[in-house]
Amino acid sequence: MAIKTILVSQPKPDGDKSPYFDLAEKYKLKIDFRPFILVEGIGAQEFRTQRVNIPEHTAVILTSKAAIDHFFRMAEEIRFTVPDTMKYFCISEAIAYYLQKYVSYRKRKIFFGKQTIEELMDVMKKHKKEKFLLPCTDILRDKIPETLEAHNIPFTKATLYRTVASDLSDLEDVYYDMLVFFSPGGIESLFKNFPDFKQNTTAIAAFGPTTANAVIKNNLRLDVHAPMPNAPSMTAAIELFVKESLKKK
After folding, report:
1. What CA dihedral angle connects 139, 141, 147 and 150, to 10 degrees?
2. What's this model's pTM, rounded to 2 decimal places?
3. Do 157 and 72 have their domain in common?
4. What percent of the chain stands above pLDDT 70?
5. Beta pairing partners, 17
6. Cβ distance 205 to 191 under 8 Å?
7. Average pLDDT over residues 193-207
8. What radius of gyration do the chain's Cα atoms show?
């Protein structure tokens, strides 16, 4: 079946430039954007029940932009002035650059990997004397703490925000040829909003191995998976699928 309409379970990209907009124009697609999950910050009172003392840490492990935002939000709420000596270990260069929103970008204090927690280990192993804080969501992937523990990295987990399902009730009678997901939380939100969802001919695209596993575990058909060697991005993977669907028309 030819793909004509796509729902991407993320906010609409800022500005006029995006690979999604190029894709829509090139193949005459209707692409809508709607976050399936929302991030809510945990208040200072609830945070204190975790008995985590942020000031006693000398380094922070940052795995997402949300982790950065909520680390500095919580520091402000508990009236902790983050010292200039704090070291930041970011899972990717993009996350590292996002830190400029809050701190002066000094390379000697900001370190980053390529994209995964395993790649960040090469840097972190040289700083084992630090006391690491891991700001995270309530549904943190086991792989991150397990990798830190496997490399004997001392760290404290601090849950600073939680992921909740968006209200998608207005989409009840709306049909899309393809749904695009970026996290297991998006799949959970789909079934929370639409418990009787049947895939039928709807194509499902998933980014990353954990999202792909969530699709399969929920007995859905995984039609598009990224990143792959021939499709490093989600838009590249969608384009390949759209091309194939056009050939079958």
Report:
1. 60
2. 0.73
3. yes
4. 97
5. none
6. no
7. 95
8. 20
